Amino acid sequence: MRGVSNIVVLTGAGISAESGVPTFRGPGGLWEGHRLEDVCTPEALADDPVLVHRFYDERRAALESVAPNAAHVALARLDRDWPGELLIITQNVDDLHERAGARRMLHMHGELKSSLCAACGDRRALAGMLPPGAVCDVCSAAALRPDIVFFGEMPHDMERIEAAVANCDLFVSIGTSGAVYPAAGFVRTARYYGARTLELNLDPTAGSIFFDETRQGAAGVLVPQWVEEMLA
Ligand code: OAD
Fold first, then answer.
1. Is 115 in the pocket of ligand 1 (CB under 6 A)?
2. Residue 188: pLDDT above 60?
3. Under a CB-based contact definition with an 8 Å cutoff, are residues 136 and 46 in contact?
4. Which atom of ligand 1 is nearest to the CA of 155?
5. For residue 138, how far is its CA from the centre of ligand 1 (angstroms)?
6. Ligand 1 within 6 A of CB of 86
C-alpha cells in the first residue's frame, strides 16, 4: 500500500453485522420481517406513513441495544491517525461509525437519528419517535419524515462522493453486497481514475471481480488487520 495518501472507504451492512444489526440481503431477503419495498420506497411512505414511520422509530430505538464492534473501532482509529485524506462513506443508517469515534464520514443513505423535511429539505438530528405530520422548525410544513434514502431517491452528498472517489489512491469496500447503485459503481469509478481497490467481505459479491484484491472474512477481523497495515 506504499504511495497511498488519499483513501476512500465504503461501508455497508456487513460492517455492523457483528454488532447485531441485521443485514438487508440475508436469508429470505427480509429486514426485521418486512420486505424492503414495503418500508423503503416513496410509494410505501405515501400509502402507509404510520407503518413506515413506526418501522424507523423501532430501528432507531433498537440502536440503544447495539454497540460498535472491532471494525468500527479500527476505522475510527484510521480516521484519527491517518495523516492523509480519508473519507468513510457509509450506506448504513445506524450510528455505529460515529459512536466509535469516526469523524471524516458521511451517510449516503441517510441516518436513523435524523429527520428530513420533505418540503424544504432540512435535515436535522432526531432523538425519540417521529410521528407522521410532525412540523418542520425551518419552513413550518407538516412534512417531516425519516431521513432515509428510499429506493428511487438520490443519495445524499453525491457531488462530494464522486469527487472523493475519483481522487482517491485507494478505494476500500467493506461489508457491502454491491447490489445497490450508485454505491456499487464506485469501485469502477475509482479504478478508472487509477486507484487501487480492495474488498473486505464475508462472501464473494457481485462486484468482487472489479477489485484488485478481495479478502474474505469477518469485518471484525479483517478491518483491524488492514488498518494495522495502513498505520504501520
Ligand atoms: P447487504 O445486506 O446487501 O450486504 C451485506 C454484505 O455484508 C453481504 O455481502 C454479506 O456477505 C456481508 N457480510 C455479512 N456479515 C459480514 C461480516 N461480519 N463481515 C463482513 N461482511 C459481512 O447490505 P448493503 O450492501 O449495505 O439501502 O446494502 C446496500 C443498501 O441496500 C443498504 O444501504 C440499504 C439496502 O437497501 C437503504 O437503506 C437505502
1. no
2. yes
3. no
4. 39
5. 34
6. no
Is 72 among the residues known to form the active site? no
Neighbouring CB atoms inside 10 A of 39's CB total: 23
- Residue 25 CA: nearest ligand 1 atom is 2
Q: How far is the CA of 133 from the centre of ligand 1 (A)?
A: 31
- CA–centroid distance, residue 125 to ligand 1 (Å): 24
Q: Report which protein residue has its CA nearest ligand 1's atom 23.
A: 13
Q: How many domains does the chain have?
A: 2
Q: Which residues contact 137 (CB under 8 A, 6 or more apart)?
A: 122, 124
* Residues 88 and 141 occupy one common structural domain: no
Helix (H, G, I), strand (E, B) or coil at 227: helix
> Do 77 and 125 belong to one domain?
no
1 has a pLDDT exceeding 80: no
pLDDT reading at 99 higher than 90? yes
Residue 1 lies in a domain: no
Residue pair 147/115 in contact (Cβ under 8 Å)? The answer is yes
| 174 and 73 housed in the same domain | yes
- Residue 159 domain boundaries: 6-21+67-109+155-231
Whether 184 and 97 share a structural domain: yes
Residue 53 inside a domain? The answer is yes
